[in-house]
TrEMBL record:
It comes from Rhizobium giardinii. One of its GO terms (biological process) is phosphatidic acid biosynthetic process. Its EC number is 2.3.1.51. This is 1-acyl-sn-glycerol-3-phosphate acyltransferase. Pathway: Lipid metabolism. It holds the Pfam family Acyltransferase. Residues 72-186 form the Phospholipid/glycerol acyltransferase domain. It is an enzyme of class 2 (transferase). The chain crosses the membrane at residues 7-31. One of its GO terms (molecular function) is 1-acylglycerol-3-phosphate O-acyltransferase activity.
């Protein structure tokens, strides 16, 4: 049954993407930039409905009150394609720093350019990176929310922390709060796999780390806060979903936590 539901969901997911892009693209490019956000946000909400209806997976968000009213860095755990789009409906005007190659993709690239995402050549240095930072500062100055995954690429649930120093540089240069977010969608939508598992999980938005710390102190604080909260949430999620097949990283981390208890 899980295989059948997974196949049906994957088909529905991509059909939904194609249909919405065909139907909504003219509207997206005709309305003002900020108003146009309703198109990808509606797509995200429709995916949540598909995930619930076909697979039987639901989620809830805790800590929305921790989101600042002004500009900030939104720093979630990154485990799955789910967390790329899932929280967009709860952010007013987010943007990403993304690989410049994504801007070259037909249609998708036009979408991200309309929303003034900040493209970057990952091998760039010097003036190019200074220009990227200036663009980022300009967007933040308008009250937007920069989404950054502190560990960079997707990591399986329970994997040892591997935080990049880039977020500390952004924290220092942008001088805005960082909002840590922990969750374990990778238990239900595993990376690099087509299987989708039913159940219920939580997204936990933690209190912001205010601007002004030394970058090294900030990074250690971020790691400590996120990893402690992530461990707690991993235990809760597995307890609430005993049917889940755990990836080796999650099973190993649970053993370590049990040994420490």
């Amino acid at each position: 049954m899980i295989i059948l539901r997974s196949v049906l969901f994957n088909i529905a997911f991509y059909v939904n993407l194609i249909v919405q892009m065909i139907v909504m693209t003219p509207i997206y490019f005709l309305v003002p930039r900020k108003t146009a956000w309703f198109v990808p946000k509606n797509w995200a909400l429709s995916n949540h409905w598909l995930f619930k209806t076909i697979v039987g997976t639901t989620f809830e968000i805790e800590g929305l009150e921790n989101i600042p009213k002004e500009g900030y860095i939104f720093a979630p755990k990154h485990q799955s394609f789910w967390d790329v789009y899932a929280l967009l409906p709860w952010l007013s005007d987010p943007f990403f720093i993304l690989k410049r190659e994504l801007v070259w993709i037909p249609l998708f690239g036009w979408y991200v350019q309309k929303q003034r995402m900040v493209p970057v050549d990952r091998g760039a240095r010097g003036r190019v990176m200074a220009a990227v930072m200036q663009r980022t500062k300009d967007e933040m100055a308008t009250g937007r929310q920069l989404i950054i995954y502190p560990e960079g690429t997707r990591r399986p649930p329970g994997a040892p922390p591997h935080y990049k120093y880039g977020i500390a540089r952004l924290y220092r240069d942008l001088a805005v709060p960082v909002v840590p977010v922990v969750m374990h969608p990778g238990l239900f939508w595993p990376r690099r796999k087509f299987l989708r598992f039913p159940g219920h999980f939580k997204v936990r938005i933690l209190p912001p780390i205010e601007a002004g710390l030394d970058p090294d102190v900030f990074l250690q604080t971020l790691v400590d806060v996120m990893e402690t909260a992530s461990d707690q949430l991993l235990v809760e999620t597995v307890k609430d979903n005993p049917h889940l097949p755990l990836p080796p990283t999650a099973a190993q981390r649970l053993k370590e936590l049990q040994a420490q208890a």
